[in-house]
């Protein structure tokens, strides 16, 4: 009697018991992250998307209002002002941090045995709580007795009113932001140490000078790290909040001593709309506008960056 054989399904291959067991363990270890993502990221995002189409003040139930919140986003001058401040800060902060970090990383590469010590020194400020940084720089940039203006006075320079003059508020914030460039320095240092030495030797044999080696060897070989820090620092700059809020909005005396529009960042305005004025629906619309803005800028950076970033093993 002939026995029937079930034909094998093309493209399908049964996994071994070991592979299935490993997959179950993988899902088990991923489960906390998946639950956390659904509960604390995806869920709130969906809820805020719904709230952005409503009027909601936390006390009363949400009331559907259609696109009213998004129309208000377009017409509200404070939204435009805070968004302009944020983009202006990012345009100053990101190139400055990247340039200084790369310069410091190049110096650290030449330090030798003390490199580990200086890596720690540069990275320690990153561990400082953001609120403490805001308070620290509020004291350092104080017009009357701040250490920055005292230092300028020693060389005969009359220091500006960093925290009260609207024209100097943004430069002061950018100066404060340099406190935490240590993480970018460490990334660049690691990238520089991975550049093959034979490339420099070949460039030397060809008669290349220091600038030529830096431009045609160093920069292409660390372009992946430059690209990564460009995206990360841009996203962080567009979400600037804690330090500036501590300096200019957490202290009533400071907040009342100057025009707060000069330090009104987008996330600060969003926070105040949500938790000070209880305009949760409008704040949710602001949050989604920021999300779309960051997404668009990141996609544009990825699109343009792929033309200039070199990855080892690629055929160019």
Concise structural overview:
The protein has 316 residues and is mainly α. The protein has 15 helices and 2 strands. It comes from Micromonospora humi.
Structural summary, described in words:
The chain is an all-alpha fold and 316 residues long. It has two domains: 21-64, no CATH class; 77-305, Orthogonal Bundle (MetI-like fold), CATH 1.10.3720. 67% of the residues lie in helices and 1% in strands. The chain has helices at residues 17-51, 68-75, 77-109, 115-123, 130-140, 147-154, 166-177, 182-193, 197-205, 210-221, 223-238, 242-248, 252-255, 266-276, 280-305; strands at 54-55, 63-64. Strands 1-2 form a two-stranded antiparallel sheet. The model has no long low-confidence stretch (mean pLDDT 88). This is Carbohydrate ABC transporter membrane protein 1, CUT1 family. It is found in: Cell membrane.
Protein topology:
Blueprint: H1 17-51, E1 54-55, E2 63-64, H2 68-75, H3 77-109, H4 115-123, H5 130-140, H6 147-154, H7 166-177, H8 182-193, H9 197-205, H10 210-221, H11 223-238, H12 242-248, H13 252-255, H14 266-276, H15 280-305
Transmembrane segments: 25-53, 87-108, 120-141, 168-191, 221-241, 277-300
Subcellular location: Cell membrane
InterPro entries: ABC_transporter_permease, MetI-like, MetI-like_sf
